[in-house]
């Protein structure tokens, strides 16, 4: 049956990088992958068109698609909008929530050709290959009650609720254990069980799941130590599983170990394997429209789409190999260029990946 893909280019560099990623999808289609690609505006582009960041008809298309490819949303033009509920970013949050995309996969992989791009010593990061599995639809970012108020004596206070129920923990736990089974068979669960009750439950549930995955070695780490270890000796990690907020912070730290924001893809999946795939970086308005943007994070997001939503692991591997090949050819967009490499534009990078595919 034909798989349906919805491409949402968005704002800033979103359209340029999504174009290159769609060319790769089209190449897969030419090789027999049975897909149908449709495009729709989202974020600021949609605000300009209809006044809201996510149109109801686009949400419906997203719900019925097998996978969504997202560029990036937002930019200075919309940052000053008084109504926060209509900002470009709200369109993404709505998509995650409506599609129940609870499982966020964020690989931090350092290509051997880019070791020099990292800010850490080669012996610390060379060979780095971590997968962070972050819970994306619960935890303190969504817990109720929440608010900002003022006491009778005039003191202002704010509060949020860090809450997870066992079902939410179990389902993200399963994603992480299965991921570890397919990789290096090591899973580190990150919590703050010495201080926060909710994460004692988190730790209990992970321990309860462990016997179902006897080939996976489970360990636990407090988040403060995990942050330190990520910088000190990141190669000790294979798969990390953690909640929404800790995952947000740790995945950004892990991303910077690779030194190249333009290289990092991500996937957000629901229970049916439906997913949204997008680069980790933002819409980079400072370089939009100049051919400077690195399209590889978005192209690698297509590889994640093939692997995790479309069940096409072989084709995913071919894309990843093609990316490795263009790096071997010393081709670099500006963000990853250094002496001795050849700087190319966004589109030339897309051309090179297609040639190597
Ligand atoms: P957001 O709030 O959407 O995360 P941001 O301003 O925090 O946006 P980015 O939009 O990711 O972050 O941009 C951060 C910096 O990285 C900018 O200088 C931008 O030009 C650069 N950058 C981001 N993505 C790319 C890319 N694909 N290729 C080259 N440079 C990039
Ligand atoms: Mg940012």
Automatic annotation (TrEMBL):
It comes from the Bacteria. Its EC number is 1.1.1.85. Mg(2+) binds at residues 224, 248, 252. Its cofactor is Mg(2+); Mn(2+). Substrate binds at residues 96, 106, 134, 224. The record marks 141, 192 as: Important for catalysis. The keyword Magnesium applies. GO terms for biological process: L-leucine biosynthetic process. Keywords: Amino-acid biosynthesis, Branched-chain amino acid biosynthesis, Cytoplasm, Leucine biosynthesis, Magnesium, Manganese, Metal-binding, NAD, Oxidoreductase. It catalyses: (2R,3S)-3-isopropylmalate + NAD(+) = 4-methyl-2-oxopentanoate + CO2 + NADH. The keyword Zinc-finger does not apply. Gene3D superfamilies: Isopropylmalate Dehydrogenase (3.40.718.10). NAD(+) binds at residues 282-294. It is an enzyme of class 1 (oxidoreductase). Pfam families: Iso_dh. One of its GO terms (cellular component) is cytosol. Pathway: Amino-acid biosynthesis; L-leucine biosynthesis; L-leucine from 3-methyl-2-oxobutanoate: step 3/4. Belongs to the isocitrate and isopropylmalate dehydrogenases family. LeuB type 1 subfamily. Homodimer. Catalyzes the oxidation of 3-carboxy-2-hydroxy-4-methylpentanoate (3-isopropylmalate) to 3-carboxy-4-methyl-2-oxopentanoate. The product decarboxylates to 4-methyl-2 oxopentanoate. This is 3-isopropylmalate dehydrogenase. It comes from Kushneria avicenniae.
